[in-house]
Amino acid sequence: MMKTFLIYAYSAILVLGSLPQLRQAKKIPDQPFARKAKSIYRTPATVSRRVIEKTKSTVTVSGHEKIPDQPVLFVANHQGIFDILVLLAYLDKPIAFIAKREIKRIPIISKWMEQIKCVFIDRSNRRAAIKVIDDGVESIKAGQSMVIFPEGTRSKGTNVQPFKSGSLRLGTRAEVPIVPITINGTYKMLEEDGGRIKAADIELIVGDPIYPEQYQGIKHNQLASDIQEIIINSID
Predict the structure, then answer these.
(1) Separation of alpha carbons 214 and 205, rounded Å
(2) Sequence-ordered list of residues with C-beta below 8 angstroms from that of 131, at least 6 positions apart, any chain
(3) Which domains are assigned to the chain?
(4) I need a surface site. Which of 65, 80, 108, 171 has the fewest CB within 10 A?
(5) Can you supply one Gene Ontology CC term for this chain's record (predicted)?
């Protein structure tokens, strides 16, 4: 447990140390946002990478060259709590997430999330959830790529739970490429050992983009199923 405590403490120090950069980020004009995103993304990415490195984990990325040079919707499976840090650190593209409303209570981290145009969802409020989709579409149209986890919760293993199709509307309404992302191994860092942080070998696999002309006319349920199958096959 000492290693786990030290890593949490190290993470807290890094987050506190990002306050000067956060103040600077707030001063950068939102327009054009794509330019702002590149400037402010370095700090969340660097903090995330240092935390992953502190755990002594290794991350292997394949297929990075497939990522289009434009805003996209990344669709990923969700094995563990470290998924977000791995994506921030190693995807090498400014990204935002749909996050639970409760995260807004976390100092500094929530402010960084606001800066990179994350959107916060109250899952108990259906009307608010619809607005989250609208906000997410606006973020993508402004130039920010976004990541969704259609399983809705962590699988804590290699099994991929059924994908919910609703959040795919972020991509289809914004009319941007949808890129499958397979995450494998992050559950070993925390969830596998009862909350103790340990090193793991992690794979991040970028799938072939699905462009608007390919998914137009396909129902969202079918699209979700197709992407889930791509990710399952990558894990196997």
Answers:
(1) 21
(2) none
(3) 2-235 (3.40.1130.10)
(4) 65
(5) membrane
